[in-house]
Amino acid sequence: MSPTDICTVDQDVSQRILELREKIHDETYMNNAVQRIALVLSRKIVEKPRNRKEIVNGV
């Protein structure tokens, strides 16, 4: 489905949504996105909570 097909189907969808729909079909974009997510999660896992509030709330 091309971006123009999407536009005709979803007239009320924002341009940003249309761009993201196109990007999810780009293998390089998806690989980079997965790598960024993995990096953020890895950093969060090894972070040492500073106080009880952070442990309870995940802040």
Describe what you observe in this structure:
With 59 residues, this protein is mostly helical. Helix content is 71%, strand content 0%. It is built from four helices and no strands. The longest helix is centred in the middle third of the chain and has 20 residues. The model has no long low-confidence stretch (mean pLDDT 81).
* Beta-strand residue percentage: under 5%
- Per DSSP, the total helix count is 4
Radius of gyration: 18 Å
Alpha-beta classification:
mainly alpha
Reported for the largest beta sheet, the result is: none
State the share of residues found in helices, binned by percent.
over 70%
Average pLDDT rating: 81
Instruction: Extract low-pLDDT stretches.
Output: none
Distance between the first and last residues' Cα? 40 Å
Shape: elongated
Number of strands: 0
Which H/E pattern describes the elements?
A: HHHH
Quickly describe the structure.
With 59 residues, this protein is mainly α. The protein has helices at 3-9, 15-23, 27-46, 52-57.
